[in-house]
């Protein structure tokens, strides 16, 4: 038996126009949790897919237990004992939660699938993560966070030698992450090896033993986690000298300007069964954070302000004028933009190019007659590709071919391009690497300083704290607290969330 | 980073068309002979252009419908309705011309064309409303009109083939303009119309967006209902126009047969042309080539006198062959090789 | 709504229930309007006359749930029946005729499925080519229609369990058996569940390690088998092979599935719904022939109109109950 | 209580038409419908839209409704055995019109109509006569697999096979319709334009399409290329009057009166011959002008 569980040697993979992996090595010891890190588009997901046979690799060998393996599909990989959670939630919205957890290895009873056992097992599996939901409901009716937990739970339940988790925590709250870590540690003790991809430095330092860093499709190095500092790691990830990185420590000032011009104000807006009546206001220059647990109603507020869901009570005013917003088009006309939470279903439009994805909302805002011509489209696309450092071979690349983080950047760009007065961002930095995340945070603060109002939703409380000058705390679909200025810190927010209203 | 180097998709259907033409070049006498007769071009190739026009008109519009993730199987029936109305208008609304009264009315060309087109627009709008507002599945929404539509057409004509002779209107189906069959010119005009709407306005972008991801399109502010309504209206219009061409060509409306199974041909052309049925992308040039493939094949079969019992088998084989050479598998095989080579070259520089 | 919940009916089965309710309403309408409509005879005729369509629609439903389509079924029915007829004329023993007939569609389905999956070719076109091929093959077997000479078929055709003044015939029995088997397949086997999975998201199914290639090839094989079985049953119905039989039947089969609530985009649908969808179409035809005054154009208008009315009712019913659910929540 | 319709209420007759895509079929339907009105019967009419299964179901439903007699215009020769047996068991007389079925004679009461083979043979005889037994012929067939297609082809060939100089050089399906007929003829002309003497069409609609194609090709139909067809709809007579069509063999669709005569005979318990020939005619170009005004369809 070889000492390494998994080894990849000289793996290369080329897509049209992109050398995604070139001559990458990777080694995973037994019983080890191994962080795989790199900027957006560095090739992490590609390496994983090459290992599990999603697509054939161009060159290189992969050894499992010292033997060369050639899986041709994830099914083969599973048979070899590799269980994987891929980056985008890849489950079946049309089947029940329970079935998603168990499909492929359903228990049989007298020649029939034993549904009772399936449902009971599913409840038990999810209880490990403190999730109590109706497992017979369709998966698609749950939030993206729940779906991600289900995907993780499914992979953990497979009886495997190797567990691969590609950004499993991108839509999870701190609590959920801890629940996941508990399970990962348990598995590790049982001798299972885990590859863990994330952009959250804290998480990497908390859970991994070793870290392998990729940059631009190339192997940078393998390190013991204990030997690295955060800044070391950042510099390895970005390939920059340490002193250039000082500015990342900087945090936006949480100043509240009470005299600022009012932008948006709700007066008891709400909808039965969806969101309890709430009162919030956003002024020009504000970055207003929304904090709360999963399912607390943050996205619901965003959807309601943007006209996706119509309120059935209360009223809303923009610049002190009462207004009803009943469709996204109308919201756009009122200079509101919403960068939605669910990138796959509400964000990217597969088939369209990066450029078209970027200009789409702006085009809608401009109306039918003002067609944005190709030259202008290219210009705009290039501008945002530069601004957000989007990795793409060309503006004409189909968006589904970008890495997850770069897709997210494109969606952010789509909404920035509309040049809104009120920008609502729902988990805008999901899946975005450390460097770019800071850039986006800075950008948002900068935009606010230039007079935009921002409603900032994030499951990362740290990020909310860092950017906002006011924070509303939500709980069970109600606004239960408000913090402003220097009052905003993680501890107080957590306290408010836990404090059952004040 | 490397420059994206992809073989344009249109190559594959073009290859298929070239193969069929090459076969004819080698084995069918006179297939490529084009002469001038009565002041217009004449020959098998010209026949192909002329005969493909109705399908092409419909297939162009069908491309947009399919790009939104929809399908319109009512086009054959709409075609029949349009044709029936046209021949009715020629006779001033009377189906009794067989009774031999000499007071038959010959309407003006403008009316003969306008009224059926308006009706077709309305039928298209019906489909569109059913899909976008009522929210029916496109297949079932258009199935309703496919079934009922032929009934309407037969009701209009009273089950007869309504004959007429009308020099002005006949031109639509039989005429030549600058020596080229007028129906083909009409098809090109429809192509231009489609291009104008989709290139000069954001409609093309929206159609793809709606087909690619309807909910994300909605989040982006697109009026998805309107976009869907539009493509079905356009499809209705195209089917109506195709109906005029066919009616004018045979100077009669054959409500029972006209356009029967033509929806299949139109869809076939669209898909052979490289537009995926799932929507989100479309390839208009591909559709045009797809129609030409189908018609060239048909004309070849007819010209070569393949026995009727074998024609469908020949068609099946050719369609499959076309499909396989442009299938993702084969394409990937070819593209992958060139790509890796390019990548290596780029690296070694 | 409370009542429905008590009965253990979930909100998700609302469309199916709506379909069923509208079917019953239509049936009652027929019974009130026409003499002799409410009789065992008419009811069992409904089963007999729609068995071929129903059996085909079952295979079609699976294909559509998996996200595909199969346009070859009508031609397969005709060619299967033709093959049976030609073989009986040639004196092939019946013990061989039956398996060969059933294999025809199965093998064709397998080949189409394989081409679709291996070459990643669009099912619409591959199965359209399958339809062209199968029609052509039928003509090659015999251009003219061919009577079936074996006694077995005549006996099977004449067979029927007497129930009231109706006859529960072999086609009717076959329909019910196929429906039950298919319901079992769809709910209680891994293969069945995988079909739903693939229709929900093929990419996800791949990533979840499900045997996508095999299942998809098998789905077309299954549909081919159903079509062949339907073709075989068709021989009891007509005792002959006829090259033009089953023209346009693929559209009816798709309509059965879709009326029954199957989504063309894949992932959703039930076999029971398909049965109701089939019977609804049969019922519309029965009402037309009971009425007996419709010209062909009125038949078409009536059929289209009934479909529209029916789908709208179904829609309204579902929307209505969903509204109630919200109001309660 | 609904069962017994009362002795003095009108007899109910079910008429199953196979489809209505051609003028010919409409004429047949109108004939059956019109005659029912004249004789005071209640007619249950069904159109199968060219689907045999529909037709079988319709006949079944007539039986279930308890009609007094059935008129059946079969879609195809085979396949009606089981349902005819059911009608027989129920004691309902069935009169076949325009197409015979390949079943035992005791399965139906009688058949009224002509014979497709006969039509093809008569047509061939006319062609032989008008061309002097020497012609290159293009044939526009009906829908492949349909009985009239097969039999009209067979009948025609029966005769011309005796003439070595009569050859079918091209043969394709025009699907019994005008559009397809025209398209096929166009292709024929491109392939063998200078070598075609005669076009034989399995029905009138295709002939009208072919005539248009010939004209557009620049030849004179009826002179340069002789055109012959079967059925005898009014449009065909018009074409003969115009000198474009050379002859038609009629296949009369006006079978209503004979069909009811037969049913009445059945009710009266009489025995009719199993085949009552319909009254078909053969019409040449020269006679057309005098007849055209009497054509009803
Ligand atoms: N199917 C594909 N077709 C073309 N290019 C692709 C495809 N998949 C990935 N790429 C490209 O390969 C590169 C590496 O992508 P990959 O998804 O591995 O990045 P990643 O490290 O996972 O990034 P992220 O952190 O954003 O998820 C990217 O530049 C991406 O654009
Ligand atoms: N941990 C959980 N346990 C049970 N149900 C949950 C949990 N988290 C979310 N849900 C349910 O999922 C559904 C949708 O939640 P979703 O995450 O979309 O709300 P949200 O307001 O967008 O959350 P967020 O606060 O993350 O934006 C809700 O019905 C919620 O009740
Ligand atoms: Mg990734
Ligand atoms: Mg949320």
TrEMBL record, chain A:
- Provide the protein's localization: Cell membrane
Q: For the ABC transporter domain, which residue ranges apply?
A: 6-241, 258-501
In the bilayer, the protein is annotated as: Peripheral membrane protein
Q: Name one GO molecular function term.
A: ATP hydrolysis activity
Name any one Pfam family assigned in the record.
ABC_tran
Q: Known InterPro entries for this protein?
A: AAA+_ATPase (IPR003593), ABC_carbohydrate_import_ATPase (IPR050107), ABC_transporter-like_ATP-bd (IPR003439), ABC_transporter-like_CS (IPR017871), P-loop_NTPase (IPR027417)
What GO cellular-component annotations does this UniProt entry give? plasma membrane
Annotated keywords: ATP-binding, Cell membrane, Membrane, Nucleotide-binding, Repeat, Sugar transport, Translocase, Transport
User: What is the name listed in the Swiss-Prot or TrEMBL entry for this protein?
Assistant: Sugar ABC transporter ATP-binding protein
Source organism per UniProt: Candidatus Thalassospirochaeta sargassi
TrEMBL record, chain B:
The UniProt entry lists membrane topology as: Multi-pass membrane protein
A GO CC term attached to the entry: plasma membrane
* Annotated GO MF terms: transmembrane transporter activity
Q: Which Pfam families is this protein grouped with?
A: BPD_transp_2
* Cell compartment(s), UniProt: Cell membrane
Q: What highest taxon heads this organism's lineage?
A: Bacteria
Identify the keywords attached in UniProt to this record, alphabetized.
Cell membrane, Membrane, Transmembrane, Transmembrane helix
Q: Which residues cross the membrane?
A: 12-36, 104-126, 138-156, 176-197, 226-246
Q: Does the keyword Cell membrane apply?
A: yes
Q: Does the keyword Kinase apply?
A: no
Protein name as catalogued: ABC transporter permease
Automatic annotation (TrEMBL), chain C:
Grouped into one coarse class, the protein's main location is membrane
List the subcellular locations: Cell membrane
GO MF assignments: transmembrane transporter activity
CDD domains for this protein: TM_PBP1_transp_AraH_like
Where, if anywhere, are coiled coils annotated?
none
TM segment ranges: 12-30, 42-64, 71-90, 96-116, 123-148, 168-185, 217-237, 257-284, 296-317
Q: Name one GO cellular component term.
A: plasma membrane
Membrane-topology descriptor: Multi-pass membrane protein
Would the keyword Cell membrane turn up in this protein's UniProt record? yes
Keyword entries, A-Z: Cell membrane, Membrane, Transmembrane, Transmembrane helix
Q: Which InterPro entries match?
A: ABC_transp_permease (IPR001851)
Q: What is this protein called?
A: Sugar ABC transporter permease YjfF
